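Journal club side-thread
Mid-discussion, someone asked how the predicted structure for our own chain would compare to the paper's figures. Pasting it here so we can look after the session.
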Amino acid sequence: MRRAEIPMHGQPADWTAICAVTDIPPLGARRVARPQGMAVAVFRTADDRVFALLDRCPHKGGPLSQGIVHGDAVACPLHNWTIALADGTARAPDEGCTPAFACRVDGGRVWLDATELATKALDLPAPVAGPCSKQPSCA
């Protein structure tokens, strides 16, 4: 099941309206700020599928929202790592992942899971310059 086809769980209050699909450029992204934690990047593919990832490359923390979307992946603007939009995993030969967020499109609007926005990936450290000694988990 594509992320854009995930059925709503329970009441609409469980989902947060983010923007219209047309507010996201084809092959581009928009950032969604959160009260706590790093921003979420919402991506639109050439065939209008919509995905959401933490706006942080698992390599050096580059802003994925500034990357180039191609097919079902985004290339990190810092070191060209390719990150799958569906699940946030880096494509071989690279290793790592960034958290993915449940999203859907309904009535031409993009919706993100409100609980995930409020709770997911809040403990991941903000990107810093220099080498990393430990890869963060995607949970």
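Post-session note: The mean pLDDT is 87.
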